[in-house]
Specification:
globular, 27% strand, FAD/NAD(P)-binding domain, 10 helices, 5-stranded parallel beta sheet, alpha/beta, 23% helix, 2 domains
Length: 426
């Protein structure tokens, strides 16, 4: 689609909630969209959640219809297992080279029956499940992931890694969907504008050893706890300790990594309060203590949610100098009060709320796009007040957590703004 010498097609990089929303809006306006996603599935971090604050809406119920709509949209060409390698040209006439890795499973023939999983002799930690579950070398990240078509992990598959003539997955498939002849592709796209929605990662709590993560068995990150609670997660939604028992007392620690990063991630307080709902829903008698240095409760709906969670009897403790240590067969959260008094609280489980930070591949993508990063590593907007979705490079827009920490509502709103900018200028 071209008008006045400009190409009106659009490239969206990243198929999380912001990228999905942007792609659908552009398609509805009649634009051709190329949606490039690094992983084998769409939905990003949002599909790891069971429920989202503040209305505790089912995350799958919210996202799945949009995923299905996107997969069936003829105006949207989805390129999974793909990464942008180079971008040349300028606003209205970008030439983009994309490397698309082979899935080795035919998207048309596969019916998602999962018969190929069990015969695979390779088992390894599932990254999607934060290492709490295992997967095979041919896999989908979790039940319900879309597209519901597995991919072969060539870094661990015996056939690709060691050159063995293993065909067990292929022999198990009745629909001839396994195709070892597939090759990686170099694809050239011509577009007029680019929207970047590659999302975020979270702070590594092993960098804050005082919280015991990686040393004490029942200290979990927020995403690990999300997957533990999820009905399609590794424990089937059961909140359990490593010994298989349910915790009777849980500590939730806010602001993990805030001092190290130097900024507030804005959403950590809210999802930490959401965990009160999670715990009380599955374990009504559990004792919950939340340790915080500051509480960030923005907006009228969030304030109501906060007041509702306080009614559960949660112990909200304002504290600093927190340290988690092993004591006997359990753990103790040592903390200082505002007056400097030291206290200790025995708990069965600790949940950490790590800071939101840019993805590790952000510097590389920044160079490819020729757009700057701020001192924290997020992509820099043209103007923080009047052009938060525009970058200094004309024709390249940003939305969601690539620009800074934000919740789902703000990420979607920003993707809508980015689409508005594209439609009004291209």
């Amino acid at each position: 689609m071209e008008e006045k010498g400009y190409n009106a097609d659009v490239l969206v990089i990243g198929a999380g909630i912001a990228g999905i929303e942007a792609s659908l809006l552009l398609s509805r306006s009649g634009r051709k969209v190329y949606l490039v996603e690094k992983t084998s599935y769409i939905g990003g971090n949002v599909i790891k959640y069971e429920e989202v604050f503040s209305n505790m809406e089912c995350a799958t119920c919210m996202v799945a219809p949009k995923q299905q709509e996107l997969l069936q949209d003829k105006n949207i060409e989805l390129l999974t297992l793909s990464e942008v390698e180079t971008i040349q040209g300028s606003f209205g006439n970008f030439v983009v080279k994309v490397k698309k890795r082979a899935r080795y499973v035919d998207l048309q023939n596969c019916i998602g029956c999962s018969a190929c999983f069990e015969p695979c002799p390779v088992s390894l930690k599932n990254e999607f499940e934060q290492g709490l579950g295992e997967r095979k070398a041919i896999y989908v990240p979790c039940p319900g992931a879309l597209p519901n078509v597995p991919a072969i992990d060539t870094e661990n598959c015996l056939r690709f890694k060691k050159g063995e003539d293993c065909q067990l997955c292929k022999e198990a498939c009745m629909f001839e969907a396994i195709d070892f002849t597939q090759k990686d592709e170099e694809i050239e796209l011509k577009v007029g504008a680019i929207i970047v929605t590659t999302g975020f990662t979270t702070f590594d709590p092993t960098k804050t050893p005082q919280f015991g993560y990686g040393k004490l068995s029942d200290v979990y990150t927020a995403f690990e706890f999300e997957r533990m609670y999820a009905s399609n997660g590794p424990t089937g939604g059961n909140i359990v300790l490593k010994n298989g028992e349910s915790p009777k007392s849980v500590a939730i620690i806010h602001c993990v990594g805030r001092k190290e990063k130097g900024y507030c991630s804005t959403v950590c307080c809210m999802y930490s309060l959401k965990f009160i709902h999670y715990l009380k829903h599955k374990l009504p008698d559990v004792k919950i203590s939340e340790f915080y240095s500051d509480l960030c409760i923005p907006g009228k709906s969030y304030q109501k949610f906060y007041e509702k969670m306080k009614e559960t009897g949660v112990n909200l403790i304002r504290s600093d100098g927190i340290e988690v240590s092993e004591e006997g067969k359990g753990m103790v959260v040592k903390h200082k009060s505002g007056t400097g008094e030291e206290n200790g609280l025995a708990v069965d489980m600790v949940i950490l709320a790590p800071a939101i930070e840019p993805r590790p591949d952000a510097p590389e993508l920044s160079k490819v796009l020729d757009i700057p990063q701020d001192t924290d590593g997020f992509f820099t907007e043209e103007h923080s007040e009047f052009a938060s979705v525009c970058t200094p490079k004309q024709g390249v827009f940003i939305a969601g957590c690539v620009q800074g920490p934000k919740d789902i509502q703000d990420s979607v709103a920003q993707s809508e703004a980015a689409v508005g900018k594209v439609l009004s200028t291209l």
